[in-house]
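worker-3 :: picked Alpha-galactosidase
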Amino acid sequence: AALALDNGLARTPPMGWLHWERFLCATDCAAEPRRCVSEQLFVEMADRMAAEGWRDAGYEFICIDDCWMAPTRDKQGRLQADPKRFPGGIRKLADYVHSKGLKLGIYSDVGNKTCAGFPGSYNHYDLDAQTFASWGVDLLKFDGCNSESLELLAEGYRRMSVALNRTGRSIVYSCEWPFYLRPVQQPNYTEIKQYCNHWRNFYDVYDSWSSIKSILDWTALHQDTIVKIAGPGGWNDPDMALVIGNFGLSWDQSVTQMAMWAIMAAPLFMSNDLRHISPDAKWLLQNKEVIAINQDPLGKQGYQLSKDKNFQLWERPLSDRAYAVAVLNQQEIGGPQKFTFSLTFLGNGLACNPACSIRQVLPASRDCGVYSWMSSLSVEVNPTGTVLLKV
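worker-3 :: tokens ->
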């Protein structure tokens, strides 16, 4: 059981699209046909992902979140999709998604009920894993609502990991385990990584700057615990939903989310409406240089190096002796501010020894030139914005 996960998946942070944040639990297709969590929604998103460059940029999963189920299991005890909203069933939807060169993700819960009150997987772990595999599911997001104790919660996460492997199908396993443990006890991340491909640590991401800021603050506060465990096969999930292209973030805040999720080696799952997305948001989400940082094969998570008043300096070691560096300006008043830092800070003094080339990736790409080890670099950063560099 200690090697239960051993599925060879998620060598880099998974990328895709999921319905939760943007579409929540909209189930009235008569009143809201374009927003309803339904077969039609996922077919339309799969079409956009295949036709408009998302799949080619690396976004390969299209994920169903909570509220897809019928209110009860079938006569054989199996989960079933709501027959009105998913008339073809999940197997047909999976076949369609696969025909587009994409993979399908689905949602369940470790407890008696999902967070929205639909049937949970408690006491049905093996059956549900077999059901998902028979449908052709490629990822399971396993939530942690409505579990009666922390012991049952942990047992459920372990058992579903074993059950998924037992199906023989490659299914990425996305856990919420540490998030539900944290109010009571410190998670054992070594154990969690033995069972899960990525795991959520913090609250749901909202379409707001305060939400993005709180996630970054929490991550920096706990980085000594969480950074070292991340790597190929298992990733910290600061809540994977990229809310870029929605309503709550300014352009600079959108740049910050994209840059910092890349620095944190976070799973990149957009939650937006790909049928209605601005060219700027599309450019940012499909930015090849940022995605390359997120997907770097070395698989090391970045961390905060320093804080200076409103500025934060973060770095992430990359392959080929490179580093990604982010300068975040958390000030929410006034105009752009200049931040100057010594390059000897980077990579324990090794990043620019004896010299290095520096390229700005965000908010716009440009070559900054070659710098010596003892140099300083100045960048100008907008309020709530981030400058992302590759050194």
